[in-house]
Amino acid sequence: MSKKEVLVINGGGPLEGEVTISGAKNSALPILAACVLGTEEIILDGVPGLKDVEIMIEVLKHLGSKVEYIGEGTVRIDSSELNTCETPFELMDKMRASFVVMGPLLSRFKEAHTKAPGGCNIGARPIDLHLKGFEALGAENIVNDDAISIKTDGKLIGNEVYLDFPSVGATQNIMMAATLAEGETIIENAAKEPEIVDLASFLSKMGAKIKGAGTSTITIEGVEKLTGTCHTIIPDRIEAASYMIAAAMTKGNVTINNVIGSHIRPVIAKLIEMGADVEEIDDEDIIKVKVDKRLKATNIQTLPYPGFPTDVQAQFMALMTICDGESKIQETVFENRFMHVEQLNKMGAAIATSGNRATIAGVDKLHGAEVRATDLRAGAALVIAALTAEGETKVSDIYHIDRGYSDLVEKFTNLGADIKRVEI
Ligand SMILES: CC(=O)N[C@H]1[C@@H](OP(=O)(O)OP(=O)(O)OC[C@H]2O[C@@H](n3ccc(=O)[nH]c3=O)[C@H](O)[C@@H]2O)O[C@H](CO)[C@@H](O)[C@@H]1O
Ligand SMILES: C=C(OP(=O)(O)O)C(=O)O
Questions:
Q1: Pocket-testing residue among 403, 405, 406, ligand 2, by greatest number of atoms within 8 A of Cβ
Q2: Which of the residues 148, 265, 284, 367 has an alpha carbon 20 to 30 A from that of 3?
């Protein structure tokens, strides 16, 4: 049996010092997928060193793109000659987000084939809105068991697409499919996340004509072809929020570099409301978080951007476990995103759930325990909780954490944490 790794964390004092945030996973993945659309060389900077990024690069290589690292976080991609429009089935199983390569493939080749992404730990995660968008552009979706073929005999033709929910992935897939379609596509009730804006800005540099990214209505005027460009991935707002929460939970004093405050407005607002001292140094993309007292309880509801991000819900719940008073969380984006509750309760938290609502009664302190990262952000929440818990915590199934946090052990160690990756 192959060896597994766990994180061993001994709770200690406040985190102190500086941490630099990496490029955003959720921008890097669709932007890498979009490289399939370019017929000339593309250089991407700020590509985070993450398992998910490795998988997306494997997908690109399988399709025939030439991909090489030419510096730390700098990748050169040449997709001038691709040899297939079928994604490798086994990689779809490893990462749902690889479905976002379908829009670019369909746009470039008028057909794309893949395995239907399954549900995951946080919810069923259907792809009906992606398929509805492809169909509106004139493609036929053929779903057979778990294989999906999307194709059109003629051209993709621009159209209006209304999304029943502002899905991030569907907005990205439809936007990319529309770049080389004939005429105008209008996506109504589009997702407004910063990662959508980053993707649109990347595509525009390649020659796409896109207006309205960051608002609910995105208009794409199809062009003949997309070329090469250079682009720097935006900072990871979820990673930044995770370190801010860790600083707050340990009553620390941490300077977070490479963070865009406007991307995490709800997290900043809630931390301030709870009593944290949060200073934004905007011109320099720096946020300082300082806490020297017990924070007050609060309530949050997760929502699509610019609401409170679901990807920060678990980490915020960890913080709430030791606040003064009772906090409440309502998760409205995913139907099953409370797997971390049982694990946090193992550490002495007092959390009760009912459907998509959680009530967190603040306790004096948490204690170390053997816990399991049930998904990516659940894993981050457990690490953050362990940093202040009394005694030792072992977090297993850390492959989830490796999907989304680059150099996590190094970054927390630099801030003074006692955290090690250990083979078992
Ligand atoms: C790689 C990436 O960027 N992942 C992010 C992206 O995921 P992802 O793009 O998968 O998230 P979506 O915005 O699509 O999903 C939000 C909700 O819409 C539902 N839905 C989505 C598509 C669809 O066709 N039908 C449908 O019903 C989902 O099941 C979910 O309940 O946005 C999520 C919401 O901010 C984040 O948590 C993820 O970190
Ligand atoms: C849910 C997440 O990612 P993905 O959509 O890739 O599963 C996340 O980043 O928290």
A1: 403
A2: 367
Ligand 1 centroid vs 92 CA: distance in angstroms? 16
Strand arrangement, sheet containing 147-151: 111-115, 147-151, 140-144
What does the radius of gyration of the chain's CA atoms come to, in whole angstroms? 21
User: For the segment 274-323, what is each residue's pLDDT rounded down to a tens digit?
Assistant: 999 999 997 889 999 999 999 999 999 999 999 999 999 999 999 999 99
Report which bound ligand comes closest to the CA of 404. 2
DSSP conformational letter for 235: B
120 is catalytic: yes
Query: Which residues make Cβ contacts (< 8 Å) with residue 177, sequence separation at least 6?
Result: 102, 103, 104, 106, 107, 133, 134, 137, 139, 156
Which of 85, 120, 230, 323 is flagged as catalytic?
Answer: 120
Q: How far is the CA of 173 from the centre of ligand 2 (A)?
A: 16
What strands lie across the sheet with 370-372, from one edge to the other? 370-372, 392-396, 5-10, 418-423
Confidence bin at 261 (pLDDT 50/70/90): very high
> One-letter amino acid identity for 301?
Q
pLDDT tens digits along 94-151: 888 999 999 999 999 999 999 888 778 898 899 999 999 999 999 999 998 889 999 9
At 2, the pLDDT band (50, 70, 90 cuts) reads: low
User: Which residues belong to the annotated binding site?
Assistant: 25-26, 96, 125-129, 311, 333
- Residue 366's pLDDT is 98
Q: What spacing in Å lies between the alpha carbon of 251 and ligand 1's midpoint? A: 33
CB 67 within 8 A of CB 255: no
Atom 5 (ligand 2): residue with closest C-alpha? 97
- 392-420 as b/e: b if 16+ CB within 10 A: ebbbbbbebbbbbbbebbebbeebbbebe
Give the pLDDT score at 170.
98
